[in-house]
Sequence to fold (272 residues):
Amino acid sequence: MIFLLLMVGFLAGVVGSLVGLGGGIIIVPCLLFLGSISTTFHSITPQLAVGTSLVVIFFTGLSSTISYLKYKTVDYKSGLLLFLGSGPGTVIGAWVNNYLHADSFLFFYGLFILFISFILFWKDTMKRPTTVKEKSWRRSYEDQNGTMHHYSFSPVVGLLISFFVGFTSGLFGVGGGALMVPAMIMLFMFPPHVAVATSMFIITLSSVMGSFTHISLGNVHWLFAALLIPGAWIGAKLGAWLNQRLTSKMVVVGLRIMLLVVGVRLLIEGLF
Fold:
């Protein structure tokens, strides 16, 4: 059990940090699957899986954010602004999660995972705009090659999108980066590396609020969290390192296939 949870945490940390997802999209399905096949994990309910995942996501986000500090790719000002929407959304999502029955949760979570997999498929076909529209929130970033990137967005739109992302994070125990990163790149003109790093920063802050909410509701399995966190911490550092050196295309392809399989399986379990 110890080795298995360490590996789940490590995989979640690597994938979450590499593509800005947060890692919950790996942890929650794995815990639910283990709960259905093993007596060791039979106590895992959807609420415990989500609450435990958010606690682990905090450490994944913190580890990767610290790593991204070295690359100076975190836009703290934009991250703090967007957190004003995602933070309250996470708390509300956590409370709504507490009222979902197991079958309902599996069904809606399956739909959500399928939606995320389609987002990942669609992301590669999207073309990033080449011109920046003047919005009230304007930012600049100079990359390692000395190239200056300019991007801007409407704070109102940013807050609305981040609130929805935060809500799904608290409801399903995911970081929300699968929704936030494409929005930051395509709608807000963020450079991709800045979008991933800033997404992890927002995820770190939001997961604190979501974690405290789930803790207050008794939705955290502390032993499983303690075993997942070391692997997630190390994996997040590796993911951040790989993000600066590799394209995440192969990882995303594998993730798409896995999400499709898991999403269909959860839908079937929720219905039958």
User: Anything to note?
Assistant: The longest helix spans residues 192-216.
